[in-house]
Amino acid sequence: MGGGKLGSLIRMRHIITYSLSPFEQRAFPNYFSKGIPNVWRRFSASFFKIAPPFAIMYLTITWGNATHKQSKRKNPADYENEE
Fold first, then answer.
1. How large is the greatest C-alpha to C-alpha distance in the chain, in angstroms?
2. Per-residue pLDDT of the chain (83 residues; tens, 9 = 90+)
3. H or E segment to which residue 55 belongs
4. What is the pTM of this model?
5. Count of CB atoms within 10 A of residue 8's CB?
6. SS3 of the chain: helix, strand, coil, percent, to 5
7. Which residues contact 44 (CB under 8 A, 6 or more apart)?
8. 14 in helix, strand or coil?
9. 57 half-sphere exposure, CB direction, 13 A CA radius
10. CA-to-CA distance for 31 and 33, rounded, in angstroms?
11. Would you state the pLDDT for residue 18?
12. How many CA atoms lie within 13 A of 11 on its CB side?
């Protein structure tokens, strides 16, 4: 155990690790030139595949809830001649 540098105290066999200096890394390479246009392209390509089913589902649930709420109301005509 002794004699090694800190962080490499044990020898691991068959495991390869790579590292890159923090001074050589770029945190956001090509973020504005390629990143934002790529997000827009992917969004616009999948929007028309995903939005219609969600819109149909939303409208169906809204219609079903309104119909259910209306069917649970009492008919005022049934209670006109009471008292």
1. 101
2. 455 566 666 666 787 777 777 777 777 778 888 888 999 999 999 999 999 999 999 999 999 999 999 999 888 888 888 77
3. helix 36-71
4. 0.51
5. 8
6. 55, 0, 45
7. none
8. coil
9. 5
10. 6
11. 75
12. 5
For residues 24 and 15, is the Cβ–Cβ distance under 8 A? no
Let me know: does 49 contact 42? Beta carbons within 8 Å. no
Please count the residues of the chain. Answer: 83
Tokens 């969004």: give the residue: 43
Structure tokens of 43? 């969004």
Among 18, 2, 21, which Cα is nearest to 10's?
A: 2
Going by C-beta distance under 8 Å and a sequence separation of 6 or more, which residues neighbour residue 1?
A: 9, 10
Q: What letter represents residue 24's amino acid?
A: E
Q: Judge whether 26 and 35 are in contact, CB under 8 Å.
A: no
